[in-house]
């Protein structure tokens, strides 16, 4: 077993967090958590074991959240805001421990993990502020003698199902708005990365969240349906917020139909990144580096298809390949490492399949294109940062999200052609383009079918902005004041007999 030293050892939790208590799983089964940087067969790869949850655990969490909701929703907004502010301060105070946990279970380099702690914390701070600004509305009455008003109310118990790629930021940006407006949460973190979520719950406990306001149940991929089905079937759960794959999002939408839950679904992406021939090429290369290689390419907003106008393709691909070839790959703890291991064997196999398929169909390898193993790279999960040119729509990586450090370059000639290609996907999360031409900027911003557009900018996410997609990338928004609406009902009051 890995010997993990944290400044505050109490952050390493190995139980469910239900009704303010750390409780063992009712099934008695354990879910091992591994460090993806090490070969899974090595004993040190095992970081900890958490409960592999079941339906009874899910029900206990739901009962606790339902009971807590009655009290939490009527707490003055300022008190909820203060609790979130204390939670935020604790995250900052424990940022080194949290970054260690993120790196260990998810694999991202330590500097990036620290960035994730601050990123996640920024949502908590933002929604703590927003908690006190959930305004209603007074409407002009349609007839005399009446007053017509709108109240905003918390939807109720929220089930948050979160992914492994940002084990802290994704759960923080779901829990914070929910708690801010008076909802209570039952959460199920990804099976690969439950420890960060449990550490966050521990900090919530220290921040003084009342019992039941936040509950975390851990489960393996195999037993996740048993947990989530309880929440899907219950009319007490009024909202599901999910980040993950489109097929799972579709399943959640179907399974929520009987109880007509509100849904926020942040699903798969297939982001285009477009470089016009009038673009600042150095800035565009930096944009790709920031957007594509963040978290080793394991983000939903990663450019998956990079379109470069013919006249600048040679210069762009040369500059990009030089930057990508120089990216240091290594375990999180290695101070200069910028690309860590992929999360698991399935992830590396998909990357390998995409690259091999592209090469077999005529793509050209500019750099990378293979698994990396050797001194300092212990496990089988490292993949070389890769640039492919000559990529065409018939290749698998054009249609499917690669979720790895692979930058495929397509050549285009005209604006109309690239808009058609960029939109030729069921997905619509993010898109990016580089050009200084103001008229083109507005044409492109309106023509791209997606929820987020980076214009001469590769790093787009912010707590102050709405994050979410269209088409098969889902619906609902996280972050910003739009993200708060997803946790609120609009209630109309009509008062008569006033004349
Ligand atoms: C994601 O990959 O789902 C989220 C990335 C982000 O918040 O920027």
UniProtKB/TrEMBL annotation:
SUPFAM superfamilies: ALDH-like. Residues 22-492 form the Aldehyde dehydrogenase domain. Keywords: Oxidoreductase. PANTHER family: SUCCINATE-SEMIALDEHYDE DEHYDROGENASE, MITOCHONDRIAL. Gene3D superfamilies: Aldehyde Dehydrogenase, Chain A, domain 1, Aldehyde Dehydrogenase, Chain A, domain 2. This is NAD-dependent succinate-semialdehyde dehydrogenase. The active site is at 266. The keyword DNA-binding does not apply. The keyword Oxidoreductase applies. Belongs to the aldehyde dehydrogenase family.
């Amino acid at each position: 077993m890995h010997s993990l030293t944290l400044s505050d050892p109490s952050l390493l939790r190995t139980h469910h967090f239900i009704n303010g208590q750390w409780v063992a799983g009712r099934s008695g089964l354990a879910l091992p958590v591994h460090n993806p940087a090490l070969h899974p067969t090595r004993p040190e790869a095992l970081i900890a074991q958490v409960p592999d949850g079941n339906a009874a655990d899910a029900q206990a969490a739901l009962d606790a959240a339902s009971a807590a909701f009655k009290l939490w929703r009527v707490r003055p907004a300022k008190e909820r805001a203060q609790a979130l502010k204390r939670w935020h301060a604790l995250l900052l105070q424990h940022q080194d421990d949290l970054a260690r946990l993120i790196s260990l279970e998810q694999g991202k380099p330590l500097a990036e993990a620290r960035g994730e702690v601050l990123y996640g914390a920024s949502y908590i701070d933002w929604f703590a502020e927003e908690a006190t600004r959930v305004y209603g509305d007074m409407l002009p009455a349609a007839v005399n003698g009446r007053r017509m008003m709108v109240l905003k109310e918390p939807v109720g118990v929220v089930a948050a199902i979160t992914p492994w790629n940002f084990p802290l930021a994704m759960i923080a940006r779901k829990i914070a708005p929910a708690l801010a407006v008076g909802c209570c949460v039952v959460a199920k973190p990804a099976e690969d990365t439950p420890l960060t979520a449990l550490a966050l719950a521990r900090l919530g406990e220290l921040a003084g969240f009342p019992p039941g306001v936040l509950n975390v149940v851990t489960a393996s991929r195999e037993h996740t349906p048993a947990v989530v089905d309880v929440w899907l079937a219950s009319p007490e759960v009024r909202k599901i917020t999910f980040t993950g794959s489109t097929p799972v999002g579709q399943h959640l939408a179907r399974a929520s139909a009987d109880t007509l839950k509100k849904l926020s679904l942040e699903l798969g992406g297939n982001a285009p990144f477009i470089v016009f021939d009038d673009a600042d090429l150095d800035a565009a290369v930096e944009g790709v580096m920031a957007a594509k290689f963040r978290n080793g390419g394991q983000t939903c907003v990663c450019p998956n298809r990079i379109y470069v106008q013919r006249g600048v393709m040679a210069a762009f691909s040369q500059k990009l390949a030089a930057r990508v070839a120089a990216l240091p790959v290594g375990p999180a703890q290695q101070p200069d490492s910028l690309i860590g291991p992929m999360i698991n064997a399935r992830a590396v196999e998909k990357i390998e399949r995409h690259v091999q398929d592209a090469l077999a169909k005529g793509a050209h390898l500019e750099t990378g294109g293979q698994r990396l193993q050797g001194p300092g790279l212990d496990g089988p999960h490292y993949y070389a940062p890769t640039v492919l040119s000559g990529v065409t729509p018939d290749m698998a990586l054009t249609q499917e999200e690669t979720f790895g450090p692979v930058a495929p370059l397509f050549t285009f000639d005209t604006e109309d052609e690239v808009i058609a290609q960029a939109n030729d996907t069921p997905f619509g999360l993010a898109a990016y383009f580089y050009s200084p031409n103001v008229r083109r900027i507005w044409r492109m911003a309106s023509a791209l079918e997606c929820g987020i557009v980076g214009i001469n900018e590769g790093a787009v996410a912010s707590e102050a902005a709405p994050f979410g997609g269209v088409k098969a990338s889902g619906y609902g928004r996280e972050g910003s004041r739009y993200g708060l609406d997803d946790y609120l009902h609009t209630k109309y009051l009509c008062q008569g007999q006033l004349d």
